[in-house]
Amino acid sequence: MKTALYEQIHEDMLQKITSNQWKSGGMIPAEMELCEIYGVSRITVRKAIEELVLTGVLVRQRGKGTFVRVTHLDNQLSKFYSFSESLKVAGISEEAEVLAFKELPASKHTAERLEISAGDTVYEVIRLRSVNDVPYAVEASYLPKALFKGITAKSIADNGLYNSMRQLGIAPVRARETFRAAALDGLEARLLQQDIHSPVMRIERVTYNGSVVVEYCTSTVRGDFFTYTVELGGG
Fold first, then answer.
1. Which of 27, 102, 139, 186 is the most buried (most CB within 10 A)?
2. Greatest CA separation found in the chain?
3. pLDDT tens, 46-64?
4. Which residues contact 19 (CB under 8 A, 6 or more apart)?
5. How confident is the model at residue 233 (pLDDT cuts 50, 70, 90)?
6. pTM value > 0.85
7. Which residues contact 176 (CB under 8 A, 6 or more apart)?
8. CA gap 80, 18 in Å, rounded
9. What are the pLDDT digits (tens) for 16-46?
10. Residue 128 pairs with which residues in a beta bridge?
């Protein structure tokens, strides 16, 4: 039995996605461009796309285009993890752009989390994390300056935050995290290239080296990118 033309195009498009030719989170060619590529009508292309949308492989964003659905990465909350290291294990390449790096006095809230005095100097590091040029998280990390003399924006950009810590002899080994669902505000929406009020997860993390707090971090993570699994013991 002859395969319908739209099904042939559907299979070719799916192959491009599974082979990573069309990358996770990336926008696929516009319908008219696909018509030229496959030499078919717009109706045929649209039907092939619709099949991939219905099966959750593609997602349409109004006014923007059609995108490969972002690969979900599941983090097991029974052990310490970092976003970049979790992605590396999953075989996904990640970029982290340092948007800001500065010294400032710790607010009362930040000081309480870092177990230092309000007004003590901290480094504020704001980063935008992306996969295949698609941003998925905005992070603001606060580090006690007394512990991290010599740390630089370049070191963090080149090596990552936790590797930069390790180069200074500080090993982040455990963390306490708090999660809550939220909606994007204007600035975060622009950075994450999402609509205002899109669902996100807000994460507060306090990171330890032994009993010493070495980082307080707030993250805003796209709700369609990560899942989190908690393993509960039997009672």
1. 139
2. 75
3. 999 998 888 778 888 777 7
4. none
5. low
6. no
7. 205, 206, 208
8. 30
9. 887 878 887 788 999 999 999 999 999 999 9
10. 97, 138
For the sheet with 94-105, list strands across it: 94-105, 121-131, 134-144, 212-222, 199-209, 174-183
CA-nearest of 87, 166, 155, 105 to 127 is 155
State the Cα–Cα distance between residues 164 and 173, nearest whole angstrom. 14
Cα 63 to Cα 28, 30, 60, 93, 198, distances in angstroms: 14, 12, 9, 28, 15
Helix 42-54, helix 31-38: angle, nearest 10 = 110
The residues that bridge with 220 in the sheet, in sequence order, are: 138, 202
Per-residue tokens: 142: 């606060």
Residues 74, 225: Cα–Cα separation, whole Å: 9
Q: Which residues pair with 121 in a beta bridge?
A: 105
